Amino acid sequence: xxxxxxRKNPTRIYYVIDEDECVECSVCLRSGCCPTEALxxxxxxWPRTVRKNFSDPLKIHPExxxxxxxxxxxxxxxxxxxxxxxxxxxxxELGRPGVGxxxxxxxxxxxxxxxxxxxxxENNPVTKLMADRSKGLIKPDVLDEKVLSAIVEFMIPAERxxxxxxxxxxxxxxxxTVFSGDIITRVGEDGAVPYAxxxxxxxxxxxxxxxxxxxxxxxLAKV
Amino acid sequence: MTHTLHRRGDRESLSQDYIxxxxxxxxxxxxxxxxxxxxxxxxxxxHHPVNYGDMVTGNCHVKSQEEILQNxxxxxxxxxxxxxxxDVVEILKELKGADxxxxxxxxxxxxxxxxxxxxxxxxxxxxxxxxxxxGQHKKLPADEILQLTTMCGHGxxxxxxxxxxxxxxxxxxKTLREGAVELxxxxxxxxxxxxxxxxxxxxxxxxxxxxx
Lengths: 223, 212
Known about the structure:
The complex is a heterodimer of chains A (223) and B (212). Helix content of chain A is 23%, strand content 21%. Chain A has 223 residues and is α+β, with helices and mostly antiparallel strands. The N and C termini of chain A lie far apart (51 Å). Chain B has 212 residues and is α+β, with helices and mostly antiparallel strands. In chain B, helix 8 packs across helix 9. Chain B is built from 9 helices and 6 strands. In chain B, 41% of the residues lie in helices and 17% in strands. A 5-stranded antiparallel β-sheet of chain B has the order 3-2-4-1-5. Classes of the chains: A alpha+beta (223), B alpha+beta (212). At the A-B interface, helix 1, helix 3, strand 3, helix 6 and strand 9 of A face helix 4, strand 5, helix 5 and strand 6 of B.
């Protein structure tokens, strides 16, 4: 957002939304913050439509049928059986918290991971935008689009964690934004969280808080 | 979608911050899930959440309870926010007894939610942690601001709004409580914790000096 002076009446100054920076999250519209109700949602056409899909949590992705920009991931794992013991789910949320990201930065991260031979989560909106999943290439027409958050999501065998973190440390210095990292595991039969020691041993940050699926969903996946 | 992950703060502050939520597994237990999610929200409401909502409709600081309940659909994600671990224990016990067949996720400090599970005779199935923030940290606001913005995982509470609220509280135009509620409203899903926000603002406001 920036100020502009009215051409006909130079004493009048007004705000202008910077369309290139706007991620179409619609929070300004919903807040009712404009006293003169001058804000409106212009009609969006491809490729700008991806901004809204990835930034406005009210928009239900046509592919995932989930509001927001992600997937069910661990939230329904006892039913889907997606994350099994010996595997870690990982997600890297480009642009989060609050900075936003362009898809050329999303592509840099995806390319670095693809070089490790990683298979991206099928039912994920970023994966759906890939032109070549084996190389982590995003469709060229969306590369300049800016979104609030775009999640690169995948699963790895537990032993590959150090290698993945090393690559992410490197590529994080090559992008013009931030990303938040997530790690998911099925709890061990003894109740242990297998990645906790591995991450702490390396002196890396691991949050004290997080999400826990308490296993009440039915039918249970056959694992 | 990891909207309740990445909440930042120290243990004391995060220990007053629990979210209990549910969603259906698409194609697996979606049928009839709207009714079961209504029952889920009914159980949460008995324990006086400080915020609640449905990702499809909005949060209780913007929408009425009736509107939220009536509009629950199979694509809904229903959340409730609590500040007391004992409430979480009671809710988990009731959910276990109700046997709704819906997946339930509890977000909070892991060793405390572990205790809650044990007290309610449940065991964690799958867990998720934050690995922190990577990349260009210079683009981020101060951590004290991030503690307030990251309570909305979809980024609907921007740093600018937090700064505006701090100024309004500082100038006596809003109370701490009113400021916290203003920050709570844009978080559509209802996962923002207004009580924790009030505590964080109480800590932060005296540290800020206004220009002339």
